[in-house]
Structures are given as structure tokens and as C-alpha cells.
Amino acid sequence: MNWNAYKKAGAAFFLMTTITAGFVLASGIHETQSTTTYTTNDKKRFIQVQLLGVNDFHGQLNVTRQFNGRDVGRADYLASYLKERKEKNKNTLLVHVGDMVGASAPVSSLINDVPTIELLNKLGFDLGILGNHEFDQGKKEMMRLIQGGFHQKTGYFEGAQFPYICANVINLETSKPILPPYKIAKFGGIPIGFIGIVLDETPTMVNSSAIEGITFIDEVTAINNAAAELKEQGVKAIIVLAHNSGRQSAPNDTPTGEIVEMSKRIDDEVDVLFAGHSHTYLNTVVDGKLLVQAYSYGTAFSDIDLEIDPVTKDVVSKQAEIVMTYQDSIKPDKEIKKVIEKYEAEVDSVVNEIVGTAENDITSTKNENGESALGNLIADSQRTMMNTDFAFMNPGGIRADIPSGKVTYESLLTTLPFHFQLVKMTLTGDQIHRLLNQQWQENQVRMLQISGLKYTWGTDKAAGNKVVDIFDSDGSSIQPEKNYTVTVNSYLAAGGDNFTVLLEGKNKVAGPFDIDVLKNYVIQHKQTFTSYIDGRIAKIN
Q1: Cα separation of 292 and 424, whole Å?
Q2: Same domain, 287 and 425
């Protein structure tokens, strides 16, 4: 790793590396919460530290989104906000909480996500962690982006110029973490420990080949082990960067999610937890620990202000703000804008092809039954191409809507950024019934988008028995012992998202890539194309 390029924030700050053996938007309100009061005299001697955090960026370098009727996002606007905040306090660290790459916009994904890491370098990020999507292209490619290396398509890349940490991903051969579990920063001689973790369910979210030779251990165990080592070194201010979910529907609402439950079980010396993964708002205090998450895609960032007592070396005050990156409130950063334009020009000939015209906005927003217009379109395209009875599409694979009007290849690439290969297989009616019941999982519901069938499910039914009736396109009931042909993508075929029934499929045949199938499906519509929610999934009771 290129430790020499690690950025210093003022003469009073340096980083000490320690390696041990072992968009779902809810609210645009800027909420500030603080803990612990102090007297005016005390405050004068406290060390003021600022932490700026970004989570789940997903390579959205040139993507603008709407929030409260205003444009938000894009890396050049995010850069301006971060630089403006950083100038106000020399004791500032820029950190990210994983999923910075993967499911990226074409300007990044078509160049193997090198543009995203380069921009993070130019912005002067100080520390990062792994998210589940960092593993999308496999551990080897992930480490190339972090540590540098050669790729046949894009050549040599120097890698991230800042450290990555992760305490709970273990090399099976060495029984040691694949990355340093924590780092220690010092401000005015006072140490602050940073621990990194990724959700331990990552193996269910990536292809098994992507994580060969490594294992994921429990996050709380990893945090507490690292915290114990930090405390042995005299560190009393501890920050956790966790790619685990947490959310609030509004600033003062009760927080929920994995990070909330974790915070109650981790060492009380931990002061702050940055969250990620769920692309939601979070700014609250649980068990004396400050928890934050700043939506996703660069539409917002977290700004945490800490006050540390130089005598006790502990955090005496902490407060956070979730800041939306409204484009009309700041000018884009010129340097970052030029980098974006450079990469846009590099992929221009590919992404600007007009492939069709959408008659209406086709969105991935699901109705109360679990069906979406965009999900229907994608599932229909896959079933048609593979000529099967049914098709199932994982909702997490759909990353952006298709707006009405002229549709470019770039738009489709943003919608389906993973480049999964389609797989045709045979399932019995009973297996299809069990597959649909696997949508209701322990901590969340993952509603598959479907084609060629309809089904009903009951709200009052127990998990594992939610599905009531299943019908084919002719209205006939699916027969338990009958064989049916099914299309899924390679991610689902490997049991991704805990849809393990698909591992039982027979007569598997590989097909084309999902993005090529959707493109050809749209092109076949000579005039315009559309898709609507048409009642494929019905909720009863």
C-alpha cells in the first residue's frame, strides 16, 4: 500500500499505522445532535477534531439526482462541499464507509472503477473501509484498486493513496485480517483510533468465487477485539467505520437497523459509528454512541465535530450534521470537474448511443405488493431472450430508473451496472414456491421482480409460508411436480441474496449478459417502449 502518499492535515497531525496479527432518501433536514456539556473555560483547552464521511458512493461521478425538487450529487459538487468544510478546521479527516465502487456509473465502471479511486485520491481522503460491493469483481481486483497493480484493459494503476482498514475479513491461510484492522491518528499528540468492518453477510451478496480464501467474522467480536488492543495502547477516543445498515425515517424518529443493535454490544470506549449499506439517513445517539449515515451516491455527507480533552484523552463532546450536496448552493470544483470530463470523453463513443425512446418514466419504485414497472421490463427482457417460462430478477441489481424520452446506452448501463450473465435452468413448481417464499428473510424483504407468472401472498402468513397461489401466463396454477424453465442472472444462480433454492436448478445453460439483453430488447421497439405495474404480484389479507 502506498503509505507515503497519506495526507497530512496540518502540522499538528500525523497518522501512525498499526498492523496487528490478528438511496433511499428519508429527510433533507440537517439535524445536529450533541452529547456531553462543558464549561466555557474547559472548552478553550479541548482539541477540536472534524470528521467528514461519505458512504455508498458507487462511482456516481457524473450523476445528478433530485431531492426536494433540487439537484444533488456529482463528485465535483461533493468535492467543493468537502473542501469548504475542511478549510474550517485543520484537524480534519476525510473518511469513507465502503461501497465507493461497484454498481458504478458507466464513466467509472467502464474503466474498471479507476476514475473513482483517482478522484478519492485527489480529494485527499485519509481513510477508507470495505463494503460488500468492493468484492464485486473479486478480492484480487479489489486489492488492485487499493494497493495498485496491472489490469489488461486499463493498464497499471497506482491504487489508493490512503489506507484501507478492515477488522473482520480474515485470510484463511494466515488467520490474519487481509487489511489492517485499525489505524491510529494523532491530533496535538492525542490518539484517535479508527476501526473498520464490513457486514458479515457479504458472502451472500457476492459470487462465491469473489471471496475464495477469506472468511468474514462477526462484526461486534472484531470491533471489541480491536478496541481492546487500542485501549492497551492508551487510546480512549475510538471511531468505528462500519458498512452496516441503520436508518431513521425522520431526524427525531427511533433509529433501527443492524448498526443500532451492534452499538449496544460493543465496547463503551467507542464514541462514534459511521454506518452504510442501507443508503439512508441516520443521526442519533444510542447507548452513548453517536451513529451517522449520509444517504448515498454523494448526495450527502456526514460532518462530525469532536472535542477531546488533552488530559484525559477522551471525547467530551460530539455532534453531527448530515449535509445535502445541493448543487445550487455551491460551485463545482474545477479540478474534479476536469477529471470527470476527461473520463466522460474516454467512454463517450460507447455511452452516448441512443437505443430507444421511453414513453414514460419507468421506475424501480415498488408498490405495496412488491412490483415495479422497471422490474417488469427487465424481467420481461430476460425471459424473452432466453425463451423460458419464467424469469426472476433481484431488486438489488436494479440501480437507477429510466426517465422518459430518449434513452442512451449510458442510462441502461447505470440501471444494470453489474454485467451479470443470464442463466437458464429448470425448476419444479415446488422449488418455485420455495424460491418465492425466500423473499421474506430474517432482517429484510427482497421482492424478486418477475415475468411469465403471477402470485398472491398473505400479510398474515408466517415467514416461509407467505406465498398463497402461483399462476402461469395462461392463468393455470403452478403444479408442484411439473418442470418449468426459468431465467435468472448469474448472481442469483449462485444463490445470491440468500435465494439458495436456485442452487438446486437443473440443466443450467449460460446466456448473454443482462445489459446486452436489455439493450436489444429496447432497440426492438421501433417507436417507443414502456412498462407498467400490471398486477403480477398481489397482496391479500
Answers
A1: 42
A2: no
For residue 350, what is its C-alpha cell?
A: 460507447
Nearest to 81 by CA among 328, 412, 395: 328
Residue 231 backbone dihedrals phi, psi, to 5 degrees: -65, -35
Contacts of 492 by beta carbon, 8 Å cutoff, 6+ apart: 392, 393, 394, 423, 499, 502
Q: What is the mean pLDDT of each run of 10 residues along the chain (541 residues)?
A: 30 28 36 41 81 98 95 98 97 98 96 97 98 96 97 94 98 98 96 98 90 97 98 98 96 95 98 98 98 98 98 97 98 98 95 96 97 98 98 96 96 95 98 98 93 97 95 96 97 94 97 97 92 97 81
CA 35 to chain centre: 29
- The domain that contains 209 carries what CATH number? 3.60.21.10
CATH code of the domain containing 457 = 3.90.780.10
DSSP string, 180-241: -SEEEEEETTEEEEEEEEE-TTGGGTS-GGGGTTEEE--HHHHHHHHHHHHHHTT--EEEEE
User: 103 in a domain, yes or no?
Assistant: yes
Closest-CA residue to 265 (of 222, 312, 320) = 222
| 3-class secondary structure, 171 | strand
Three-state secondary structure readout of 459-470: CCCCCCCCEEEE
Residue 9 domain-assigned? no
Which letter does DSSP use for residue 514 in this model? H
Domain count, the chain: 2
